[in-house]
Fold these 2 entries.
Entry 1:
Amino acid sequence: MKKNIKPSYEKARRRTKEEVKVLTDKYIIDNNLSKLGLNKKYFIITYGCQANVRDSETIKAILEDMSFKECNDMEQANLILLNTCAIRENAHNKVFGMLGRIKHLKETKEDIITVLCGCMAQEESVVNEIENKLKWVDLVFGTHNIYNLPKLLSETINEKNQVIEVLSKEGDIIENLPVKRDNKYKAFVNIMYGCDKFCTYCIVPYTRGKQRSRKIEYILEEVKDLIKQGYKEVTLLGQNVNAYGKDIDNYYSMAELLNEVAKTGIERIRFVTSHPWDFTDEMIDVISKNDNIMPYFHLPVQSGSNKILKLMGRRYTKESYLDLFNRIKNKIPNASITTDIIVGFPGETEEDFKETLDIVEKCKYDGAYTFIYSPRENTPASKMEDNVTIEEKEKRLKQLNELVNSFYKENNDKLLNKVVKVLVEGISEKDNNICCGYTDTNKLVNVKCSKDNIGKIIDVKITEAKTWSLDGVINE
Ligand code: SAH
Ligand code: SF4
Ligand code: F3S
């Protein structure tokens, strides 16, 4: 029997100078493995951020290389996978709730294989719990060894024992993984993996390992290939994309990478997520000069209080954030900027919270994801004294959301009667004469037009502005 390999927080925290290799032959699928899934169906649920969405696209392609077929009904599946997120406690709870449902299903149907992967699989305590209490979960693997899924599944099926293989050390960049994309017009392109920022509240540097930038030639090759397939938009992905290249000596910077991607001629380029610390003037310059780099930025602020920003380890102040914000807006006036905010961080006083409201007032964000602070095991913030009651945190979140929402509508109103470019993606479920798509600034628009426009970028005149979306007609 194979010995289980379990994660360790201690090892996950370590950063070594060891060179990251690029491997182009690590993913292997032999004749036996390629038939393992014949006549079997899989069902996958993806939690969390775009990194997980993109990982699921690879997991799906690997399973299809093994002859499994995707199905949309969990009850029909022979193989159920949960690609999990560990960012906050409620992400955990959702997964454990789903595991309860799957256990129930397993009691009525024998041949279901259950797999847990993604960021929760990188957590020591989660894996211990699964090993000790949820022995019926068949396979656990982490974010660093997706390439090994065929072998792991084969062991799971043949050995009929729980298989756990979670590596704590990130290892190399694997460049020969397949992908089954969810969307025909927009694609996610990884440009870096991991994160070295270690914000004190965040679990990602532990679940995703050290920062590793992909070599530019592989990124450009992927984008050029997507253009050939008819893709209109790419989103360059990473936890902290502005630090692209910093882990490789004398390498391309994010500004240089953006410039090169723009030269491929792909119609739309986006990138997430931007850490304010690494956003350079050179980047702003490149973006303002290239029409195919979209004027949309996700620029998480987290808090408006300098005291809290320092405790969070964010490396910028309210003032330097506002300065960056204004530099972007001055050079790219139509820029739409969204953010992430945490309320109720340990030690956050009413005064600190007012600073957060103040920065929201000043930035009038086009959108904000707001969260109540959730302590994550083993992170520095989880050891800080937290004297803010949950009632107070909920009150602050509600107050913050009201303010944030008021700016959604205000910003959308500015687009009334204007003509904007929309990449039409699909047809409305309720009305066949309405299609939906996104503007260059990433706003959702419902357009009165025929489905022949799907996959095209068209000029749309905005006729109505709502809080969460816009309505429009084709501009003749
Ligand atoms: N790499 C991105 C963020 C990824 S996590 C960045 O640095 O901007 C997405 C968001 O989840 C974060 O921006 C933060 O607002 C929130 N988040 C992360 N850890 C959290 C925690 N422990 N409690 C509450 N929210 C958290
Ligand atoms: Fe987490 Fe900070 Fe890294 Fe973002 S930059 S993933 S918040 S540690
Ligand atoms: Fe969640 Fe992992 Fe993303 S913790 S937010 S899925 S990197």
Entry 2:
Amino acid sequence: MTLGKFITFEGIDGAGKSTHIAFVADLLKERGKSVVMTREPGGTPLGEKLRELLLHEKMHLETEALLMFAARREHLAQVIEPALARGDWVISDRFTDASFAYQGGGRKLDFDKLEALEKWVHPKLQPDLTLLFDVPLDVARARLDATRALDKFEQEKADFFAATRDAYLRRAAQYSQRFRVIDSTMPMEAVRDVVRGIVCDL
Ligand code: TMP
């Protein structure tokens, strides 16, 4: 039984999702909710160790997918499921949709294998709301290049991100009830207004 709600933030690297996470947490707290903010890969001590490997070590694409889901299994057991059972609201910077987008779309891992892992690791749970921050590739690249040293995923080429974005949009169409696609090319204040409207409707 889950009492709280589960909100996930998604988008290709450079889409600008991370700037809005603290804003949503504050909005919910103002409305009296108890909020847990977390991220994937990561969210637990073991998950953060796996994150280091995933973001910096070269590995077979199936190893990468399995480690993403191993970190997720731990994250669900240690953080997400207990929080939802307590009635907290969980905000996660990425979840399983990222595996479909990056490992499925970007790396071209068979979607059937990802679906099998999804069924294994969280057969019943899905986010109540997924905010997909969508931008064209050139905008995302420009935002990334302006920041810091790039990790393994961020160093991928344009066709990888085109396939990743496409897989995200297909997933959003498939699960249109829980997804909201946000045009993240708008000025930050305008994106914020859209996000506020969506979250206040929950
Ligand atoms: P972040 O930069 O948004 O923290 O995400 C870390 C990277 O991990 C990002 O490039 C996307 C990637 N990733 C996957 O490839 N598969 C997944 O399942 C998750 C959660 C993240």
